[in-house]
Q: What sequence folds into this?
């Protein structure tokens, strides 16, 4: 099993969720996040004052999937979240030793 953590633009969340749902990904965790990479934040003018924001709003999406689906899930995330601009995000992949469904006690792929 693999865990995928994807940091994406907030406006791309619905597209990514639909694409993953089409692939049979049944569950995911979505969190609001803030951060920066090569963008280094942004500058805006508010009431005549220049305000520099170093942290940009992002979405952190987490899914655990069987190892056999890893390539198609990653491709779907990239295809639906890519704009070609700085700030499109990152994908991190981790090995998962085991998964246990608390309600039933199922282990492994059956718990997904």
A:
């Amino acid at each position: 099993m693999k865990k995928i953590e994807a940091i994406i633009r907030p406006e791309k969340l619905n597209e990514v969720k639909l694409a993953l749902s089409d692939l049979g990904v049944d569950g995911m965790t979505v969190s609001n996040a803030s951060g920066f990479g090569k963008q280094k934040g942004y500058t805006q003018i508010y009431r005549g004052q220049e305000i520099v924001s170093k942290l940009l709003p992002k979405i952190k999406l987490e899914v655990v999937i069987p190892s056999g689906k890893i390539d198609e899930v990653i491709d779907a995330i990239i295809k639906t979240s890519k704009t070609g601009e700085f700030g499109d995000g990152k994908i991190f992949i981790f090995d998962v030793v085991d998964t246990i469904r608390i309600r039933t006690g199922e282990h492994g792929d059956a718990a997904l």
Q: What stands out?
A: The CA atoms of residues 62 and 111 lie 16 Å apart. The chain has one domain: 2-111. The first strand starts at residue 2 and ends at 8. The mean pLDDT is 91.
